[in-house]
Amino acid sequence: MTGLFPIVRGPSYRMSRDPSLIPESLRQRAQKVERDALDPVNLYNIHWYDRQGNLRRLLLPPELTGVEANIIVLLGKDFPSGSHKVGPAYFTLVENELQGRLQPGMEIIGPSTGNFGIGTAYVATLKGYASIIVMPEGMSAERYERIKRYRGKLDLTPGSESDVNLVLDRVQAVYAPHPERYLILGQFELLQNYRFHRFVTGDAVRKAVQGIGNGRVAAFVAAPGSAGTLAAGDEVKAYDPEARVVALEPYECSTLYDCGLGSHKIEGIGDKMVVLIHNLLTTDLIMLIHDQDCLDGLFLLEEWREELPRVCGIPSSVLPALRGVFGISSLCNVLGAIKTARYLQLGPRDNVVTVATDGIDRYYSVLQAQHHLCNQDPEAVFQRIFRSKDLSGILEVDAYHRKRLFNQKAWEWKRRGYTDELLEAMKHQDYWDEEYARITDIDAAIEACAEPLLQGG
Q1: 314-351 burial by CB neighbour count: b if 16+ within 10 A, else e?
Q2: What is the pTM of this model?
Q3: Band of the pLDDT at 4, cuts 50, 70, 90?
């Protein structure tokens, strides 16, 4: 690796995994910065810990979940830019700088349906680059506003969440032919996305269960958009092969489950493809969740939160911890974790871990559109969503289905220029472990670079 950083750098992978490794003076400066601030020192807040050094996790009250197992949620809303997807965006820029592929004056292209694009615009600005975020035109207004706040330009394509293929097609047609001008951060293809979540988020998942139940992860549950977050399951299974990794999808767009390609309302997941960086070898279950349940559940926790003590017996003292911490895909993950606990018949010592990718701040306009709930009984809505015993839409991924999923992946990515050799290599765990092992050399290169921030620059 021979490139140099044109502006500033941020943490190495190991610093994001364990922020206590960040030099003390720099860590103190980062802790004083607002998490949304356009200050380069905020790059050192790309980690899962709060200012007191505590893991940002939430143990959901059993009165809410209705299951015996412990449902633990890692909270992503306090990452810089408001989502943990800022991590892969940052490390992709860093690695490209080190390799000399990203030069001053180039523009960053971020194909996305939201959070990754927001993170891309944020990191690009902090590191001194212009960015263009290519997104469907049907996403929440708050997502577009935040990208503009971070000085990113928007290039909108037709459709919504389920039409990300049109986003990729536009990037391929307009930006890919000009590698001298643009660096494309294709989150669905980025091995930095896989590395970050396996190393950083995977460690946070393992630590999230400390002091809870038996201290082990029975299942890790996440809905793939780019499938980066699912890589945390690889880290969990490396330590405990009996842990189950569960991939969630909307019933309305069940691509992994049965090749379904419909439209749905859960922003950030279900993109009508088997993503290139999805390690299919470690996915044990595919599980379907109704998109409207996620929207209605979010409305319940935000607009009717004060009704929860009456509706299900949640102590009033718990309510502040639930305020603002979930987005739509976060509710999908929570409902999937509850469904997983029921399906696996987990008990009070078992732990299911999932992730809240973002918070409510980018979904107010979506909540305002849920007019159908205004005349409904909160208790009836709660019972329908959080006490459902429906265990349909669950697929155990056996050899037959894994082969089918590999074929779906090959069809999608061969037509985008990927070789048979690469796609064949991805059928073996050695490929993923070797990519993961590259972190050691990458970190050495990052930490060897001169650091203007440490020098007071």
Answers
A1: beeebeeebeebbbbbbbbbbbbbbbbbbbbebeeebb
A2: 0.94
A3: very low
